[in-house]
Amino acid sequence: MSAKRKDIVLFAVIVSVALITFVAIPVVYLSKSKPPGGLSKGQESSWLYGKSDARWTITEYADLECPYCRTYTPQLMQWIDGQTDVNLVWHHFPLQMHGAATLKEARLVQCAGKLGGGKAFWNAIDQVLKHTRGDGQGLVTSIALSGIDAVVLDRCATLDADVALHVDQQLQLAQQAGVTATPTIKITDTQTRHSVRLEGPVDEVSILSAMDRLAFESK
């Protein structure tokens, strides 16, 4: 086979692999979307993880007792730390199978944000994921957040009706959107409001491929 012929064959193989990778993204839907739902006024930007002016927003539908979320969320946050144009929004999706523990933890992190802002919110998520036994068994030990009294935090998680309503509303929004598993992510192009939803612990290659697809469709 001539060198020219080999180059043509090699190029064809590369293109084929790229197309297979692109098409194989586990896309659930592609549509225009509203800004991330379930956040109170003023919280949508302050509770973003990453740059507020990023083009791409990843919404993670997650359960704090989910063993897959426990592994995936820190990896996703670490990946976003290395990106210049991607941020993250957490969307509570406490699964019924994980009982009271997941609801209590969702309210805990929500209260952390209410009492201490975005930094406390994400710190609480990190601590809960590190200290939960998972699968509905709850926390091994109480979480400790700088500047927030543990008793006040626990009282908020137990008694604050607005926090409980917020978590319930996010659960309902996720169900209405057709989310059925955790983790699930939604990637939104903030320039066009087009989005794609991917199920499972999606790797960075699939995330970037989905972004490329959304960017291509915006042209």
UniProtKB/TrEMBL annotation:
- Highest taxon above the source species: Bacteria
- Which keywords fit this entry according to its UniProt record? Membrane, Transmembrane, Transmembrane helix
Residues crossing the lipid bilayer are 7-30
Q: Which InterPro entries match?
A: Thiol:disulfide_interchange, Thioredoxin-like_fold, Thioredoxin-like_sf
Query: Which part of the chain is the Thioredoxin-like fold domain?
Result: 46-198
Record keywords: Repeat included? no
One Pfam family from the record:
Thioredoxin_4
Task: Return the protein name.
Answer: Disulfide bond formation protein DsbA
Please tell me the species this chain comes from.
Answer: Pseudomonas protegens
Tell me the organism's taxonomic lineage: Bacteria, Pseudomonadati, Pseudomonadota, Gammaproteobacteria, Pseudomonadales
